[in-house]
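Narrative of activities, Objective 1.

The group set out to show that a structural description can be obtained from nothing but a protein's sequence at a throughput compatible with the screening campaign. Below is one input-output pair from the validation batch, recorded exactly as produced.
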Amino acid sequence: MSNQPSEQEQRKLWIQLLSIVIVWLAVVTAGFLALFAYGFESGPTGDLRNLSPQSASGKWQLVMAVHPKCACTNATYAELERLLRHVGKETDCQILVFEPEDSVAFSDTQLLARFKSIPGVKIQRDPGGVQALSLGMTTSGCLAVWDPKGSPRFFGGITASRGHEGMNAGSNAVANLILHRSDGQVTHRVFGCPIQNHAMDSDHG
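Output recorded for this entry:
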């Protein structure tokens, strides 16, 4: 007797194999789409109209809120560093660094070290994220900009998506405001982790 499967059994095996491949492709596709969607999922953004005017300083004032363990914010660092290379002489830039009120474990991260390496940038501890929240900043990487007269001009992010560097409307808007004295106020979506994320104990976006 032959041990070879019959034609009907072979057909069933091929159908089963095809079903497995289809299911696998569906799972991979769903995972890819979910990851793609997550990359373009912005965090909550405050309202530029709620930003209070600052005292006139003669320079553009930039304030950014950062969660030092948000991996997405590495791209924000790169964009800020690139931006300040072009406009730094025109600005005063401050970074508000979130820390849980009961811990300073967030004060020594690779991301924070990168921000500290930018010439002229001032690093300010922000226990509990209180200062950030007072400005309406709830997402890491959010930037507020005031012109030399103290009027709020920009509020939002300076990346195109989560963790991705490159040309984007946010950083372009800030550069245009500062270099070309563009008129108006600009907002842009922020891509990053929640500022007040106490549970984040490793560098994940």
